[in-house]
Every structure is written in C-alpha cells, then in structure tokens.
Amino acid sequence: MNAPLYNAEILRLAGSIPHHERLTHAQATAEKRSPICGSRVTVDVGLDDDGRVKEVGLLVRACALGQASSSLLAANIVGRTPEELAAARDALTAWLAREGDTPDWPGIDVFTPALDYTARHPSIRLAFEAAAEAAFAARAETADA
C-alpha cells in the first residue's frame, strides 16, 4: 500500500465538516477522546418520532483523520437509527482491525491508507463511537419522558 496517509481527499473532508456547531437543545450528547493523541469529538443528536436522527451537531478537536471521519459521519447521519450507527461503528472497528469488510458507509474507503497505522485508528473511530452512544442515549431519554 503506497497511498499517502494524509491524501487530498482526507484533507478536503477535514476542512469541510457539516453540522459543525453544537445543538442548543440536543436530546443527548456524547464525547469521545483518543488516549493516544488527545483528539476529541463531541456529538449532539436529536431524534424524530420514528427514532431516527433528525438533527446533529458536532464539536471536533481532532487530527485530520478524526476531522475527516467526523465529516463523513456528519454528512450521512441524518435519517439513521441508533442501531444503524452502532452497526457502522462496529463495522468500522472490525475493518480497521482487518477483521471485516469495508463498512457500508459512504466514502469510508478513504481511510484505506490508514489500515496499517493502528495508532491512528482511535481517531478515525471517535465520531462513530460518539454518534452511536448519543443516539442510544437520546432514545433512552425519549423513552423516559
């Protein structure tokens, strides 16, 4: 694998994160940090009446890989259920560990050059981990109301 880790597409994604402002009235919030590099991603979500993400806000303080991953997540999260987000998180984790196929998430294959850089994997997973956690917390909040 000779592709550069920080390629033009990674850098483009890192510089164009959709929904990059926190929600003022989120149903739930989750924050994840990488113990290796200190990258941090906070995800706020609101669910619709069908339990699907209807709004999302992010605060991303991460390296270019974490920013790019947050960008891909944010561009494709609206309309997803907590289960779909957990499945994407789990598939991404397995793929990065070379224990699964490329996840079914638009654009995720941009991280193929990072497969050999295990120290970078936590940053790539942050947004997906936070989003799944926040979505399940929002569902629980709605059920308790």
Descriptive account of the structure:
The chain is α+β, with helices and mostly antiparallel strands. It has helices at 8-14, 64-76, 82-96, 121-144, and strands at 28-33, 40-47, 53-61. A three-stranded antiparallel beta sheet has the order 1-2-3. Strand 1 (28-33) and strand 2 (40-47) form a beta hairpin. The longest helix is centred in the last third of the chain and has 24 residues, at 121-144. The N and C termini lie far apart (51 Å).
Fraction of residues in H or I helices: 40-55%
Order of helices and strands: HEEEHHH
- What is the distance, rounded to the nearest whole angstrom, between the alpha carbons of the first and last residues? 51 Å
**Mean of all residue-level pLDDT scores:** 94
Uncertain regions spanning at least 5 consecutive residues: none
Strand content: 15-25%
> What is the overall number of helices?
4
Gyration radius, rounded: 14 Å
Return the structural class: alpha+beta
Largest sheet: 3 strands, antiparallel
Shape: globular
Could you tell me the number of beta strands? 3
- In order across it, which strands form the biggest sheet? 1-2-3
Provide a quick synopsis of the model.
This protein is α+β, with helices and mostly antiparallel strands and 145 residues long. 41% of the residues lie in helices and 16% in strands.
SSE arrangement:
Layout: H1 8-14, E1 28-33, E2 40-47, E3 53-61, H2 64-76, H3 82-96, H4 121-144
Antiparallel strand pairs: 1-2, 2-3
Helix pairs in contact: 1-2, 2-4, 3-4
